[in-house]
Design brief:
About 35% of the residues lie in helices and about 25% in strands. The chain is of the alpha/beta class and about 270 residues long. The longest helix has 18 residues.
């Protein structure tokens, strides 16, 4: 009789989290999710659904925008982390790559990458080794390493901010809208690299993404947010085949191609929340 394999260790646990901005604006309404060790988890939904707020709640970047977690808990490896500052969380192995490719534009690509090692204490040899590792995943960055980051392309800047995060030796990366503003070929390249970093380096990912189609091809599990609530979750294969997801996020219905703009939103909510 074969033994049942042990479930993967849970790294991140978000439980019934509520987020309020400016003491009055309720943005997240009881969001719960988990990220296992070695997982790629997709956080899906349209613009304004609460994806970025969820990531910022985890990485403790809400306070700069007058936001706060008012209910629920966020734990990493069993430790409550919602009261830590972002640098403490980075030292624990969790780092966020923010939406919008926030490079230090006046620095070179290589200088940008080295800023990611700011919290490390293992010396120059370890940092140099990891810089070579980043260049092995992003050979284009090696070619542009002496170029001022502000003059590189959008795709190169996206690679730069992911590479900068890798320089902190993270166990988990919170990746916000990696496909935004990029050509389809570059999106595919970025997600292939995410897959390789997960498979070969053991980095876990929680990625917020509007491009549901590509995200579900690379993620292991997905959560769909709508108006600050999780309305559906499940393994990626199952979500890709779900008729609601096909119709409203992949643009396909039983009768063929269809824009979700033409579908009344109450039908979606009624079917999902019933």
């Amino acid at each position: 009789m074969s033994e049942t394999p042990n479930p993967p260790e849970t790294l991140l646990e978000v439980t019934n989290v509520e987020v309020i901005y400016n003491h009055v604006i309720l943005v997240l309404k009881g969001v719960s999710l988990s990220v296992p060790k070695g997982g790629i988890i997709a956080l899906l939904g349209g613009n304004g659904s609460g994806k970025t707020t969820t990531l910022k709640a985890i990485s403790n970047l809400l306070h700069s925008e007058r936001g706060e977690v008012t209910k629920g808990s966020i734990t990493y490896r069993g430790r409550r982390v919602q009261d830590l500052n972002p640098s403490e969380l980075v030292r624990m192995g969790v780092i966020q790559v923010m939406e919008g490719r926030h490079c230090f534009e006046h620095l070179t690509v290589e200088e940008n990458l080295l800023t990611g090692a700011f919290t490390r204490t293992d010396g120059k040899d370890g940092i140099a080794s990891d810089l070579d590792l980043v260049y092995s995943y992003f050979p284009r960055l090696r070619e542009r390493r002496k170029s001022q980051a502000g003059y590189t392309s959008g795709g190169e800047q996206q690679m730069c901010v992911i590479g900068r995060a890798l320089m902190s030796r993270p166990e988990m990366i919170l990746l916000d809208e990696p496909s935004m503003g990029l050509a389809p070929q570059l999106v595919e390249e970025i997600f292939e690299i995410v897959h390789d970093l997960n498979a070969k380096e053991g980095v876990s990912f929680l990625l917020a993404e509007q491009n549901t189609n590509v995200a579900l091809r690379f993620a292991h599990y997905g959560y769909i947010l709508e108006s600050g609530r999780v309305v559906m979750d499940g393994p990626s294969d199952g979500l890709r085949e779900n008729p609601d997801v096909k119709e409203f996020y992949l643009g396909m219905s039983e009768t063929g191609r269809k824009s979700f703009r033409d579908v009344r939103s109450y039908r979606r909510r009624k079917r999902w929340l019933s």
